[in-house]
Amino acid sequence: MDLKAFRIKAGRNKKKYTTFLKGLHSRKVKQLNAKAKKLNDIAFKKIDCLACGNCCKTMTPTWQPADIKRVASHLKMTVQQFKDKWLYKDESGDWLNTKTPCQFLQKDNKCSIYEIRPKDCSGFPHIHHTDFLVGREINIPNMTSCPITYEVVERMYKLVVEKDQSALDSK
Nearest CA to 77 among 39, 101, 103? Predict the structure, then answer.
């Protein structure tokens, strides 16, 4: 995965796709969630997360208390030791990594705690299990960090704005 080329392409189209996502509620798109799920499935077949890892390199998950407890226990640390070593609480009260890339990202783009990773990570990029209209606020920042999110938004734009049914075809 050429992340530099991806960042350039995503940056070039960010305004257009952001405007599209923000205005999507005013369009009457039949079976929007089903289409989003299909586009998500297509994107996951096309893009290999392990060849990318950009989410772990540039973003931080939101750690829920259960995530912190589970991972701290696995690492034989107390919750407080885990927080002190790797997390901070932001202004809205969310626990986030103190730095990127993620402390658990390995050189091969694999996660050293994959089986017990935070729920935010296991659900990323959150397209397949959420209402696409509600999730569009999450997709706006994610589409410049995640090639899968970008692919879904780009194909949805083609499908809705350009009325290109071929966007639903796997390529």
Answer: 103
